[in-house]
Amino acid sequence: MNWLRNLMEHSAFGVCSYLGNRMGVASARVRVYFIYLSFAALGSPIIAYLFIAFWLNIRRSIKQSRNWIWE
To answer: Assign residue 33 a region: left if phi > 0, alpha if psi is -120 to 50, beta otherwise?
Structure first.
């Protein structure tokens, strides 16, 4: 069951984990605050979440392409 949780955190909650690592807090706390903000702001933080997820995927792609050149 632990591997399923790790898989879901890595694939579905990459944004919260990234923000938690950058701010130095637990990713679970970031998820809870994100959920509270989504209810309070009527879903508008979802747009920010999608933007950050897109940005992280682009950044990961750029890093992988750079490594390929130098190998």
So the answer is: alpha
Q: How far apart are alpha carbons 28 and 59 in whole angstroms?
A: 23
Identify the residue whose tokens are 């679970």: 28
And the tokens for 2? 């632990």
**Whole-prediction pTM value?**
0.60
Task: State the residue for tokens 């994100």.
Answer: 34
Domain boundaries, the chain: 2-70
Provide the token pair at 5. Answer: 């949780």
pLDDT tens-digit series, residues 50-64: 888 888 888 888 877
